[in-house]
Amino acid sequence: MMSNLFSIFDPSTNLFNLSINWLSTTLGIIFLPYSFWLIPNRHFFLWNFILNKLHMEFKTLLKNNYFNGSTLIFISLFSFVMFNNFLGLFPYIFTSTSHLTLSLSISLPLWLSFMMYGWINNYQHMFIHMIPQGTPSILMPFMVLIETISNIIRPGTLAVRLTANMIAGHLLMTLLSSTGSNLPSYLIMFLIMIQILLLILESAVAIIQSYVIAILSTLYSSEVN
Q1: CA 72, CA 84: separation in Å to the nearest integer?
Q2: Segment 91-103, tens digit of pLDDT
Q3: Is 222 left (phi over 0), alpha (psi -120 to 50) or beta?
Q4: By C-alpha distance, which of 25, 51, 61 is closest to 216?
Q5: How far apart are the C-alpha atoms of 11 and 86, rounded to whole Å?
Q6: pTM of the model as a whole
Q7: Cα–Cα distance, 124 to 16 (Å, whole number)
């Protein structure tokens, strides 16, 4: 039962199918309607409104470190993660964000680039950041150790948070759907209603998790300047 349950997160054992499954992460670029980019419509205005709101929020978080185009990477990160989260809610489509392979491939390079930039260009600020203001002298070595550990595990926490949230919702929906054949007919409609509610909840989680990983990446970026 457990092997069948977790098999929904298995890309494939076949090399060709494996590459096709991971290729699903680029479906947004391939299949977005041509008119979406050229002809303004309600979807275009809604998406443009969301991106403008994100731009203003990321610009505020970056403060004095903002320059033209600096928010583009975080807006692109939000869009990429949200699209793949939503894509996994469709039947028979591989959920790439439920794998640490993808989530670590996103969080680790970002964290490494922030750390390299900070230690090369602002090493004094990076040292100061390890000891919060007002820390007693006797606690300073422990604070340096704690801050160092919390800094090192950041890419892992970003990746695990996204992966765990995607896996949890999909597992719950899979468990409920697998019990449908064993239920009496009068409970089938009740199960369908629960599945619809879970799908709405998972849609909200898909948006929230993409926002969380983008906002945390922005905060990590602002700390190294």
Answers
A1: 18
A2: 777 788 888 888 8
A3: alpha
A4: 61
A5: 17
A6: 0.80
A7: 50
Q: Which of 86, 196, 216, 92 is nearest to 156 (CA)?
A: 216
d(CA 210, CA 28): 15
CB 165 within 8 A of CB 205: yes
82 pLDDT more than 80: yes
Taking 3-state DSSP, the helix, strand and coil percentages for the chain, each rounded to the nearest 5, stand at 80, 0, 20
User: What number of helices (H) and strands (E) belong to the chain?
Assistant: 11, 0
Q: Which string of b and e fits 37-53 if b means at least 16 CB within 10 Å?
A: eeeeeeeeeeeeeebee
* Residues 95 and 88: beta-carbon distance below 8 Å: yes
Tell me if residue 40 falls in helix, strand or coil.
coil
Under a CB-based contact definition with an 8 Å cutoff, are residues 10 and 93 in contact? no
Specify the DSSP class assigned to residue 63.
Answer: G
pLDDT tens for 202-215 read 899 999 999 999 99
Please state, rounded to an integer, the average pLDDT across all residues of the chain.
79
CA 114 – CA 175 distance, rounded (Å): 40
Residue 57 in tokens:
């929020």
Contacts 24+ apart (CB under 8 A), 160-164: 160/100, 160/103, 161/209, 161/212, 161/213, 162/81, 162/97, 162/103, 162/209, 162/212, 162/213, 163/97, 163/98, 163/99, 163/100, 163/103
